[in-house]
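WARN  no MSA supplied for this record, continuing single-sequence
INFO  ligand: nicotinamide-adenine-dinucleotide
INFO  echoing inputs
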Amino acid sequence: MEKIRHYIGGELVDPVSGRWLDNIDPATAEVYSEVPDGDERDAARAVLAAERAFPDWSARSAEERSRHLLRIADLLEANLDRLARAECVDNGKPLHLARSLDIPRAVANFRFFATAILHFHSESHATDQLAINYTLRRPRGVAGCISPWNLPLYLLTWKVAPAIATGNTAVAKPSEITPMTAYLLSELCREAGLPPGVLNVVHGLGGKVGAALVSHPKVAAVSFTGGTATGAEIARSAAPLFKKLSLELGGKNPNVVFADADQGEVIRTSLRSSFQNQGQICLSGSRIFVERPAYEAFVERFVTETRKLRVGDPLEPGTDQGALVSRAQYDKVLSYIDLARKEGGRILCGGGRPSSLPDRCRNGYFLEPTVITGLDVASRVNQEEVFGPVVTVTPFEGEDEVVAWANGTEYGLSASLWTENLPRAHRVAERIHSGTVWINCWMLRDLRVPVGGMKASCVGREGGEEALRFFTEPKNGCIRVPG
Ligand code: NAD
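INFO  complex generated
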């Protein structure tokens, strides 16, 4: 059975403990590889390697660092098929999605930050005739990058690329549930000739190796994406050590449909925003609000189209929806469907396992896409992050009502807004408390824009200059102008 290894100081190494965890293919529920059960000793080795590599790497020119990142991007691209298949098997997502979204985005992350550092500029402030101030931005040192399982390589590289592009060295910790593509990235970094220790990857449980990384005194900045409860734990551990923290957390995003919107486009995009990646996207629009005059027709069409989605073997080209990532996630999502029934919801479609699955997948973690109506906006299913192929649909009467409902959760990550009325689009977008508002679209990404959320969804921002700033320390120089 294939054994995944840590990537430390340029080498692929076994965990100090000599222990491994099972890595399960969610489409078959079978163990197909093993992942190191890393602990604080592995974290310490990786941080030491990163620390040693820092003086040389941070002293290299931006152009040289850029060339290294571009080489990694080229190798990722050349290995697109292998990586996409690995992501599909590890995560349960459809192969075509990994091919068209996850891996191309990992390539783009490296290219984007490889070239962004060539154009990064800083500020200068003239203080009347007295002085000129200039701001230098220096790498922070060793960055800890911790990522979740839903978009494994996509989100890991979204952190690692800006961290090392700006001259830091990094220790990355992928999710123990989906470690494979981070391991393949380690191999490709070796092939690309990335200097040893610039990027290190440690594997294992969040509470062990992840927590050790966060609390390590030599890790100057921690960039984390994952659940809100984990984010709170990380903040508790990192704050007394005065580390720079970026936390990208959960969401319960509203998808607001006004009656004047192009309903064909609304249905097409809402199917994606509800169910793409089995609904396991932090930006999924899991609460759909439809203006009363359009509600009945929306529900009928949406349910008809949802029933057409093919749930099945993620390796098959015709599959729209693959397996949920793990048994625990499958059980959690099912428990929310149960709760919805208890809370008085009507399950219009889905609600359980698909009736026909190929033999290979009979034990896999498959759930039908599920549409629920009749739930109070304050119900738990409408308040808590389900993170699965489950959406609720609720009618609304007017702007004030829907804005209050959209804002009525502890989260504030993203929102979608559908209307042909431009003044209303501006008005409602302004009033919604979320880091991103998509107007007549969803997940239309530009890597330059700030990404993140409000309230319990985020601390800080990623993307473009925000990431370059996060991973660098500003230092002001002040030169007195001789009078
Ligand atoms: P998680 O919080 O369980 O785990 C995320 C990562 O943190 C994993 O690598 C895990 O091993 C590690 N970890 C766990 N406990 C830790 C600890 N005490 N110290 C250090 N590291 C620890 O999240 P998940 O279940 O992997 O991912 C799903 C969650 O991620 C959802 O809530 C989703 O909304 C969120 N998410 C947010 C964004 C965003 O951009 N805001 C993007 C994707 C996913």
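The CA atoms of residues 40 and 212 lie 5 Å apart.
INFO  checksum written, moving to next record
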